[in-house]
Design a protein that fits this description.
Keywords: Methyltransferase, Transferase. This protein is an alpha/beta fold. It is built from eight helices and seven strands, in the order αααβαβαββαβααββ.
């Protein structure tokens, strides 16, 4: 089952990237965008990086008159879709193609790093070391995942099919952040049987 999921995931980020938004809307019953936007109240500062921006739907929401937003995404297909989206909106956002494990940015470049529904790179300790390097002292990462709040057997089965995280996923994520020197806390937000889990991991402030 996991190998099938990994294949579908690869296709959605590459050959079938054109269908990513429709699939996300369908599996979330139309709540994907609101789940993704759960990150916004936790964003701090004016220098923001979104890692793994996918089809680019969150990038414009991260911007305001004072914020400088940058995005990074490894998929060329997702980059093309995002470029078309932002052109239609006349809302340019600087973007680069690259991976979370090797961020092409200077030390202490960002106040907040955002990653909504990240790929398995989020469990790689290298990712969190790069996050810590690129955050200013007192900066934070904001990671959006999902947790199951309902208790029905059918609901649990459907959740595991669509979001097949392992029981130790969140523990591994917390350990990777802690090893990188980031202290994390979790916030379950919203309502419904499936809810956003916002994980905020902060870098120690200077002094």
């Amino acid at each position: 089952m996991r190998s099938i999921y990994q294949l579908l995931y690869r296709l959605l980020y590459n050959e079938l990237a054109w269908g990513y938004d429709a699939v996300s809307w369908a599996v979330s019953l139309g709540r994907w965008d609101s789940w993704r936007r759960a990150a916004l109240p936790f964003v701090r500062g004016n220098r923001i990086l979104e890692v793994g921006f996918g089809t680019g739907a969150l990038l414009p929401a991260l911007q305001d008159e004072t914020r400088r937003v940058v995005g990074i995404e490894p998929s060329a297909a997702m980059q093309r879709i995002t470029s078309a989206r932002l052109r239609r909106q006349a809302n340019p956002v600087p973007r680069v193609q690259g991976t979370a494990q090797h961020l092409p940015f200077a030390d202490a470049a960002f106040d907040t790093i955002v990653s909504a529904f990240p790929a398995p790179y989020i469990l790689d300790p290298c990712t969190h070391r790069e996050f810590a390097r690129c955050l200013r002292p007192g900066g934070r990462t904001v990671i959006v995942e999902l947790v199951l709040a309902g208790s029905g057997l059918l609901l649990k089965l459907l959740y595991r099919l669509v979001f097949p995280s392992t029981p130790d996923t969140f523990q591994r994520l917390d350990e990777a952040a802690h090893t990188a020197g980031l202290s994390s806390e979790e916030h379950v937000v919203g309502d419904g049987s499936v809810r956003p889990l916002v994980i905020v991991a902060e870098k120690k402030a200077a002094g």
